[in-house]
Amino acid sequence: NDLAVLPASGFPGYIGQPSLVWLDERQVLFSAVRAGASGLYVIDSESGSVEPQVTWQALHAGLSTDAGQRYIVQARAALDGAGNIVVHDTQTDTTTVVTDYNADLLAESPPAQWERFDVQRGAFTIEAWLLKPADFDPAKQYPVVLDIHGGPNGFYGYGFNPWQQLLASNGYLVVFSNPRGSTSYGRDFTQQVTLDWGGEDYRDLMAVVDAVLERPYADRERTGIFGYSYGGYMTSWIIGQTQRFHACVCGAPCFDLESMYGTSDISHEFGELQWGGGPAQSRAWLEAHSPATYAHRATTPTLIIVGEADERCPVGQAEQMFVALLKAGCEVEFARYPGGAHGFPLMGPPEHRVDFLARTLGWFDTHLKG
Predict the structure, then answer these.
(1) For 297, which DSSP code?
(2) pLDDT tens, 221-250?
(3) pTM of the predicted structure, to 2 decimals
(4) Looking at the structure, do residues 154 and 32 belong to the same domain, yes or no?
């Protein structure tokens, strides 16, 4: 299982230790994410039965044990902090955070308050989270930003996200969710987005925004959207479908699906699995589900961000979007990061990551606070 790693999120692959441990001749302990939360599970290799052991409101990575397999060590990120090591004692069923590297920073700039909520859409429950400023006051009104994850078969959950925390710490409500197509909810839920990009996934997201805007402290006249990769597809799709949002930050978009087919590092097979094929097989579908088809209707002020060395969502997609929005008379700005790969906002040079965060905050401040 260590031959190749190509994460669906688009960030660089790596070869590491598998997150599983044989407990005996039949049972395997492994780490997995369910409903946006990490947990430990045991699978019986003969019967196939899976038994949950513990679940955390956090995201854990890696899995190491001591020789006696009593203690399990993992890296942890949570909504209240990131970058720590935790030890879980299987005998006492307790988890201890053994590092606290960011204590001084978090004391100076406290993490956001948060809450989890659900939105029911037909047979599906859409899970969502809302971040609030650390000094949140329900008597005030706050601008709202919807953040859309990549994938589409990715997920958001209980992990630490720098741009979400940046926006919340600067007076925004940040809402994020797992629309149909997201992982960690089972295969059927994940496959709902296949051949339906811009369909029920879009409507799930709008329902989540509607639920937040029912709250008296959410200002429906100051709303924004942010998305990267598939989230960039969705933000570019949304501004061609509705004028309800007042600012958009679109990162690494999939803008014209026909021209993107076969040009990504995930090969033509991605288009065949998600879109039903390339132009020869699915030209009508590709046109109907491409944000490029509807960009002439866009009015939302938009910042486009892309790394010039992006092999997942090639820079030409962002270039097409920039020109289309210019032709539509839409206010648009285009930021290109030299040498930036698909994952540069999290893994690129520090100066690029800082600039990305500053531009994102500045765009929303200008259009939602100015």
Answers:
(1) G
(2) 999 999 999 999 999 999 999 999 999 999
(3) 0.93
(4) no
For residues 76 and 118, state if they share a domain.
Answer: no
Q: Answer yes or no: do 178 and 162 share one domain.
A: yes
Number of domains making up the chain? 2
The helix (run of H) or strand (run of E) holding residue 334 is: strand 332-337
Count other Cβ atoms within 10 Å, centred on residue 225: 28
Same domain, 74 and 218: no
Strand partners, 89: 71, 94
Alpha helices in 75-131 (DSSP H): 103-108
Residues 208 and 341 in one domain: yes
Mark whether 352 is an active-site residue.
no
Say which residue the tokens 């930036």 belong to: 340
* 69: containing domain: 20-101
**CA nearest 76: which of 53, 99, 94, 92?**
99
pLDDT in tens, 41-100: 999 999 999 999 999 999 998 888 888 889 999 999 999 887 899 999 999 999 999 998
Q: How far is Cα of residue 52 from the mean position of the Cα atoms in its chain? A: 25
Give φ, ψ of 56 to 5 degrees.
-120, 155
Which entry of 229, 236, 282, 290 is annotated as an active-site residue? 229
Structure tokens at 176: 């994020």
Q: Interior CA angle at 194 toward 189 and 195, to 5°?
A: 140
Is 342 one of the catalytic residues?
yes
Of the candidates 60, 342, 352, 367, the residue annotated as catalytic is: 342
